[in-house]
Every structure is written in structure tokens, then in C-alpha cells.
From TrEMBL:
Family membership noted in the UniProt record: Belongs to the metallo-beta-lactamase superfamily. Class-B beta-lactamase family.
Keywords: Hydrolase
One Gene Ontology molecular-function label: hydrolase activity
Highest taxon, organism lineage: Bacteria
GO biological process, one term: antibiotic catabolic process
PANTHER family for the chain: ACYL-COENZYME A THIOESTERASE MBLAC2, METALLO-BETA-LACTAMASE DOMAIN-CONTAINING
Taxonomic lineage of the native organism: Bacteria, Pseudomonadati, Pseudomonadota, Alphaproteobacteria, Rhodobacterales
Pfam families, per the entry: Lactamase_B
Name recorded for this polypeptide: Quinoprotein relay system zinc metallohydrolase 1
Residue ranges annotated for the Metallo-beta-lactamase domain, each copy included: 57-237
The keyword Hydrolase belongs to this UniProt entry's keyword annotation: yes
NCBIfam families: SoxH_rel_PQQ_1
Record has Zinc as a keyword: no
Length: 313
């Protein structure tokens, strides 16, 4: 007898692969990985934004608090936030108790809408930048991701986190107010497990993004993070780092990027010629290359060119 179950089986497996079917319906498939006692990570794709990944390119951390799970970053869209809320409820029936946004880039905070009734904490400058840049970011995300973004509205953080020792939902953190990837980048050290959640100050095996970057301040922030001696580090993008390789890798990439752009400016190359630079093997294999290098050239080269131009008067 042909039942409804058979019909679904044919639809689900025989005609279209489950993952492709989920993509066609714009459903995020989020899998939490336990990375410490009472701590889970959802690891994003290391690719650039695409209609295949729906912008699920960012790392999210969920940490046990007294009354639910503390969420660090909320993803790129309303639908992603909804998927996160159901992951949280599967891990802890009480769901999410508080949200922390590491910085104001849209892949990290556009899921806030789902948690608007909870405290949403960030650095003060992140809050103002989310308000001032949010709509422009949303336009861009709708262009890149289409239907994945349907219904998404910009919900900025609501509370300013203090720096230093803080307690959020009963859990002790050290909040480190840094910057350089953007105007304000929050890194959070979980005292109980020694896990450093670095946001986009650290990328691992995925090319760093630079649309809001100040490379000198970013390098100084990396030095501060390295001095912490964390047991493990969760980068903003890329796998969890237990071997202390991610900070030196990010530093090396940013140094190479700056030297490459300065040399090109001194040699009088134009932007297209710089984009044709062959990437060294250690950076060519990173996720989202060469797109991120090309984006960095377009963000950073005009300013560096101005600095390096011989003064004519
Ligand atoms: Zn970012």
C-alpha cells in the first residue's frame, strides 16, 4: 500500500537530496558541537556568503548559564535565529537566556530579532555602529542571500557590557574591549573553561575580512589576545583552535596583506593589477579566497595608495 510516509520518502531521498531540499526551502541545518563542559559551538562554513550556505558562515557559541544558554553572536538572518533558538531548546529546554554580540557585522547579529525579549549585550560602539550601519548591511545581505533573509529586521544590541570581570546569567567572563577588525570588537574569556571566544579578531583557515578594518589596531588586539594563554580559542570563522595556531596565522595574513598593498602602491600598480597578485600557498588555501583578498584590495588599497603617493608639493 502506498502511504504518505512512502510519498515523503520518495520526495525526500529519491528525487532531491535532503541537503539540496533544505537549501531550496531556505532551512538552516545547524549542528551544535560540544567544545567544553556546558559549551557548544555551531561552526560556520568557511566559504563566502552564497545562496547555498544562506550566510551561515559564522561561528556561534552557546554556554550554560543559571537560567538558560548564553548565546554569543546570533547569525545572519531571522531564519537563522529561529534555527538557533530551536537548537538551544534541544540542548536546554529553557532556551536562550542572554545574547552577546561580538561586533556589528551582519553575519554576527542579524539573528537578534528572535531574541529581542532577552538582554542583548555588546560594547557601546558596537551598539551605535549597528544602529548607523544596520540598514546598509541589510540591503547588502538581501542582495547576497535573497529569500534566506525574508522577514529579517535589524535589531541592534540593547545593553552595553562592562569590561573586565562580568557575570552574565550567573556565569563569569572576562570581557575584553578591543578593536581593529571593526571600530569595536569584543572578545570574551569564559573563566570556567578557559575558552577564549575571539569574534572576528581571529580567523582560522578562512581569509580575514577587512571592510571595517584598522590593521594596526587589529594587530595590537591580537597581541593582547595572545597574552591571555587560553585553553582553547573559538575564532569568528573557522574551526576551534586548541593548538595556538589561529592567532599567528591571522597576524601573518594581515602583515602580508599590508606589505603587499604598500609595495604595490609604491610600484604604482593599479587596483586590478594588485588583484592579480598570486597568493602565497599558505594563504591561497584559506576559505573564501581569492574573494576576500579581492575585497580587501578594494577596501584598503585606495587609502594605502594615498599614504604612499609621493607628496608633490
Ligand atoms: Zn566581522
Amino acid at each position: 500500500m502506498f502511504t504518505r510516509r512512502h510519498a515523503l520518502g520518495i520526495l525526500g531521498a529519491g528525487i532531491i537530496a535532503p541537503r539540496a531540499y533544505a537549501q531550496a526551502r531556505h532551512v538552516y541545518d545547524l549542528t551544535p558541537i560540544q567544545i567544553a563542559d556546558g559549551m557548544w559551538m555551531i561552526e560556520g562554513s568557511t566559504d563566502y556568503f552564497s545562496m547555498q550556505n544562506g550566510g551561515a558562515i559564522v561561528n556561534i557559541v552557546l554556554i550554560e548559564g543559571d537560567s538558560g544558554l548564553i548565546l554569543i553572536d546570533s547569525g545572519p538572518s531571522l531564519r537563522y535565529g529561529e534555527a538557533l533558538a530551536s537548537v538551544a531548546r534541544r540542548l536546554d529546554l529553557r532556551g536562550v537566556s542572554a545574547v552577546i554580540n561580538t561586533h556589528h557585522h551582519p553575519d554576527h547579529f542579524f539573528g537578534n530579532q528572535v531574541f529581542a525579549d532577552k538582554p542583548i549585550l555588546s560594547l557601546g560602539e558596537t551598539l551605535s555602529a549597528a544602529v548607523s550601519d544596520g540598514d546598509a548591511f541589510a540591503d547588502n545581505m538581501y542582495r547576497l542571500l535573497g529569500d534566506w533573509m525574508r522577514g529579517t529586521e535589524v535589531v541592534p544590541p540593547t545593553q552595553v557590557i562592562s569590561s573586565g570581570e562580568v557575570t552574565i546569567d550567573g556565569r563569569s567572563f572576562t570581557a575584553l574591549p578591543l578593536g581593529g577588525h571593526t571600530v569595536a570588537d569584543l572578545a570574551v574569556l569564559d573563566r570556567q573553561t578557559g575558552t577564549l571566544i575571539a569574534g572576528d579578531l581571529v580567523f582560522y583557515d578562512r581569509a580575514p575580512t577587512t571592510p571595517s578594518a584598522d590593521l594596526e589596531i587589529w594587530q595590537a588586539s591580537l597581541n593582547e589576545l595572545e597574552a591571555i594563554n587560553a585553553a582553547q580559542l573559538v575564532p569568528g570563522h573557522g574551526p576551534v583552535d586548541k593548538t595556538r595556531a589561529a592567532i599567528p596565522q591571522t597576524r601573518a595574513y594581515l602583515s602580508w596583506l599590508e606589505h603587499t598593498l604598500r609595495n604595490a602602491a609604491r610600484e604604482g600598480l593599479d587596483m586590478i593589477e594588485v588583484m592579480d597578485t598570486t597568493l602565497p600557498a599558505e594563504f591561497a588555501g584559506m576559505g573564501a579566497q581569492p574573494q576576500e583578498f579581492h575585497r580587501s584590495v578594494s577596501h584598503l588599497f585606495p587609502g594605502i595608495e594615498l599614504q604612499e603617493l609621493p607628496r608633490g608639493n
